[in-house]
Specification:
mainly alpha, 13 helices, protein dimerization activity, HAT C-terminal dimerisation domain-containing protein, HATC_C_dom, RNaseH-like_sf
Amino acid sequence: MNLYYELLVRFIKPAAITKSKSLLNINFQKAKNQKSDDSLVVGSSARVLLQDSNITLEEKEEFFLSVRKFFVTACKYIIRKFPLQDEFFKHASVANIFKRQTADLQSVKYFTSLFNCCVDSDQLELEFAFFQADSLSSEILEAERVDVAWHKISQIKNSNGYAKYVALPKVMMSILSVPHSNAASERIFSMVRKNQTESRSSMNTKTLESLLITKLNMGICYDVKLSSDDLKKAKGDVVEHEDVVEVDSTEIKEYAKSKQRKEF
């Protein structure tokens, strides 16, 4: 929604935006809702170029017409392709700790129903009320990721020494665990293509699986610590390979000598 809003403010009049109850209800194709050519946000460099260069009035009009078409097309694409009205994303903002005071309990209940969370509803409601009213520590507010922040919230103790938040962090962690794109899947397919190439067409599935698991779990290759057994096995395989190469090279030399004798 932020991207959609950033596009609208570039070519739609402020009055048309503020009067509308929802950004999605704005008729951005109507000329009366659009800014004048002088008010369109096209960037300072473009403005300087339009003023300093020898561009005719017709060319300027064509330029601004193209700008309007671009903004309209981009907004149409966002509405058609982006999940702006998806209920899941509307309620997911409840996990944002910086929006806790404006969050709605119904958003929490939406996810408990969606995930079939086995949490006490009364306890969850009370914890959410505490969460909205409590002052969070700087350690939580300055956490690098929202999942880290919620982990720290789950460790807060009450006056009796027990965890103050039990049910609420479970629901929030469930929200954060939902994949929000297919980038991870595409990354796996890319690794498959890089490992199972045409020159390795005979590679079986088990070997490919082992390579992918090693790649995903071990991190940076030069940081991997191998055990003594792994090193011995690797060295043994290298020795066997060198023996095979040596035998093959000897056979090739003998074959070459025999060919030379026949020629003489």
